[in-house]
Fold these 4 entries.
Entry 1:
Amino acid sequence: MDTQDLLKKVRKIEIKTRGLSSNIFAGQYHSAFKGRGMAFSEVREYQFGDDVRDIDWNVTARFNHPFVKVFEEERELTLMLLVDVSGSLDFATRGQLKRDMATEMAATLAFSALQNNDKIGMIFFSDHIEKYIPPKKGRKHILYLIREMLTFEPSSRKTDVCQALEFLLQVMKRRCTAFVISDFMMPESSYDNTVFRLAGRKHDLMSIQVYDRWAADLPDVGLLKVVDAETGTEQYVDTSSRKLRRLYSDHWKQCQQKLKDTFTMSHIDCISVTTDGDYVKALKGMFDMRIR
């Protein structure tokens, strides 16, 4: 992709996702995610019923009359986007590639955060941390993040979400809002429920699973050559076999149940979106669920 094509693609994504964040998610992001706590705003004269612990003794002594500190919710947040860049994201049998959908969702969330004057950071991960972009504010920073998502070439094609969560725990000392955007196609041996629980407890953590419909329901298309995008392993499968399709479907359901159980135990909100699905509707559903 040459520079001119890249700029056009970045601009196209900006127009689409910034419009979504302004017109559809306006106010929802603000309501769905709470600030870090209460910040000092001003002082005023003491009124009957005020908490004596809020008395500002310096101002009280100066005016010889009791004054109290007034606090308001500290709205500014830090949004961290943990984006899977492994090989399995370069796939789709319909709709758009999983990677392209992940990019659009991340951009939509970033522009929503921009309206709230939040900082936005990003972690690219495969089975290790590929790149860390520290949180910053501003439109230029978001455009930089979009360019990176469009052009970044990972050094590994495998997946390990736990590595990303461990890194998040290391670099973000204060509580933040974080989204993990992935297909969550990783070896069972990589699952570490302790890491999920620690990350879910320290941060306001949500997950977005992007998947292709064939992952859940293998169609009957006869003999099919399949390639594992993360290991490069090739093999032929006979999709006309009902037993094979049933085993394939059962395996998918087992993996999904394990993932759901992990998220539930770790208090992590989650949504799943197919590559030909409506991610706008899915994100709205997540925001609405958190507001209620």
Note: The chain has a mean pLDDT of 88.
Entry 2:
Amino acid sequence: MQNINALYFLSPIIMIAFSVGLIAYWKIKKRFTVWTLLLSLVAFAGAIALKVVVQHFTIHPFTEAVAGNPVALGIYVGLQTVIFEVGGAYLAARIAFSHGKIRADDAEGYGVGLAFWENGVLVGGSTLLNFIVYYVILAGGGLAAQQLFDTLSTAAPILFDSATIALPNIGLAVLERISSLLVHFSWGLLCVFAVVFKKKRFLLAALPMGLVDFLVPYAGVLGSLNFEILFFGLCLLCLLVTLGLTKTERKNAASVSLLTSEGSMRLKSLVQTNFKRALSFGSIYLILGIVISFLTGGLITGLASEMASADVPLIVSQTFPLMLPIYAVIGSFGGLMVFVSDRTKGVYEYLIAYGVNVYEIFWSTLLVTLGLVTVVLGVSLTGNIAILLLMGGTIQPAMIEMLLIYTIPISYASVAFMTMSGMMWSSLTRRIPGVNSPIGIATLLGIGPVLVILMLSSFFVGSGFLLLVGGVTLVLVALVAVMMVVTNKRMNRERLLSDA
């Protein structure tokens, strides 16, 4: 049985390295802040989520209505990019600027950030992960390998091509990501300048750039080489137009930035300090979440190994990923514990006196908690996959799919919702045992969304499950965003003063 050509690993590795390298360059040589990275993530993730939801409901009826006409499909895809990606980038930049979190010389970094999340994470990261899974499964042999080989041979026969054919395809894939970088950089810069300099012509120039996706339906018609050359040419034109329009503003960006970077420096310091404290403060919960995940994963694998071999993939690939978000909630309690402790002891009175605002306090706790989720997921997934392989199991595509579309997004979204709700609840109420504590009401808020999905999963099968998870995730993210705005607009500083 033939394995995929290992040369194809070069494509996502180059994408990831190039994306990370650009951020490092902008960080060292120019300006790239944590706020810029977070803002670009919010803008990009929100746009992609909305596109997924819209296309889920409309792509099939629309395709049938226009009889697959590429012009209509091109307009359909291009307008979504214009509205959700370019429009979303402008909206996110406008909100951030109104809260003093972005300035003129962040414009280039914002564009680089948008390109990073698409090329380095969404495309590069997911492609690399898929290739690793394919390679490991095919190398292991057996029924799963044969089934995967049959599927890939039909759906993606290019993966088994020789080096002489693979290398040009890799080059075209990299060229497409470079094109994506150029156009994301262009509209990201224009959106920030439109907000900072209050010039609508920058926004009017940025919006049409989303129409480069008009070419997507023509990929098969034009051929790979012609498509990539045309796509690169249009994206390069977008960059040249952007540089020409913003020549004066780019020279004056640093001097007209009336905002300072003190907020970013304070946030970075708070996150670093509180993350270390959260590891110690909530160590028992962090360890508990990881240990329970190991016990559950090992138990499921052990029980499955005693059953018929056909049942093993289903049990292991579905059950453990479904339960993992609950363990992530448990392991992330340390962040809320630090918040409640500092508020009770009067730490925030000291910080507020030195210029730290409510927005930074809440953001730092949220980032710390999401960092703890990353630790739990990283350790649990690595350990349980190792246990699975040691016990003779295989990594099933269904497991990878479940992790990507459910476990990871729901873990972060649920914990973010729990953290924001817990902080606001703790700040708005008097101290009541079991309520203000992060192991009180906040626990239910964190586990609640997971339980809702588990209870409704039997009614949503196939693509319906993806829609269910996406819907719940969008609701949670929207609620977190609303609560974050409320903290900055409505949360009085007195709410964070000690009750003592």
Note: The two ends are 70 Å apart (CA to CA).
Entry 3:
Amino acid sequence: MSSNSNGKQSLVPEARDALNKFKMEAASEVGVNLKQGYNGDLTSRQAGSVGGQMVKKMTTVRPTKTMCFQRASRTAEGHCVTVKYIAGLLV
């Protein structure tokens, strides 16, 4: 296993290059100019927008199944409430 500069060990060393490429793509999509290596001159807003874009792309929700049914209202006698459940798959 390889060791990072911060002391953490990568479980999959080959993933580092892929994640760096993904980070650069996300940065260009939100208009942040990243350079290879240290980017300590970025503002918190810029760094957050890059991370947010990465998360947004990693956690795209795709609804796969919707279920609707009616049940008796718990607050008003004689009334029905429609309940809708949406199951999604994180891709």
Note: Residues 15-29 form the longest helix (15 residues).
Entry 4:
Amino acid sequence: MNHTICVLGAGSWGSALAALLSGNGHEVTLWSIDEREVKMLHECREQKEKLPGVKIPDNICVTSNLSEAVEGKEVLVFAVPSVYVRSTAKSVAPFYQKGQIIVDVAKGIEEKTLMTLSQILEEEIPDGEICVLSGPTHAEEVGRKMPTTCVIGAKKKATADYLQDLFMNDYFRVYTSPDMTGIELGGALKNVIALAAGIADGLGYGDNSKAALITRGIAELTRLGMTMGGKMETFAGLSGIGDLIVTCTSKHSRNHNAGELIGQGYSMEEAMDKVKMVVEGVYSAKAALTLSKEHNVSMPIVEQINQVLFEGKSAKEAVEELLLRDKRVENKSVNWE
């Protein structure tokens, strides 16, 4: 059965998902606020700057007209960067029609309010049925139809099942979960850990260092996530350890790439300029640190990343301080007999 879908945001992820959904037989409209981007997509049918080599099918309507994009669609996919979710939701709200399902595919936590992106959408579009999609899903690979798995989070099982059918195909496997809190926190917090993994690579450290950061990183985000209501199983799944692994190791990861540049001596601002895309981990780092303090959860990697990003601490000193922390047991729940 064909469905009508609006994808808001024509960057790499939005373009990849628009192509996927169109390939699944749905009627897709791709919206961008940037007239220059719309013109490029009309002329080239390709996101040349952010997703080169991936064709935008001719039957996808590309527009900057928000009312045209939103009205009459069954599903609205929010694929704008996390820092623009609130402003985009404010703009969408006047055109939103009750019954439309909203799927957020961005990852982040709002710095000032400490709200997840689904909470922002619920605040700005109170009648909306809000869901999330997350996991180890680099747009560059999804756009080229490489096998990928992800998870849909929704409050109602029927909605999750509906969206699973909408997105899933022979290269894009979709699981479902009711744990939206865990899915969102895993997706947001792993970006901060990926900055640390990139910094270690930039300093010339090896796989041992990266494995340590990934392992201790999942421990940090699980501690905070469970305190905030997420489930351990979620952090052990695709939107937790799965997304953390790919973001800490992939050449496609903007967070890892920015961290690597910082490790090589670039400032945060210089690294973000060179990556040329929104580095979500920079925006989530302060929020993660504030949440860790509010919930009294130890997050030493997050603490060190904040000091490097915002307090002028050297990357080398931060990594060494992590390695030379007080002696500890690995897991307090595992006891000697």
Note: Strands lie at 4-8, 27-31, 46-47, 51-55, 61-63, 75-78, 101-104, 129-134, 148-153, 172-177.
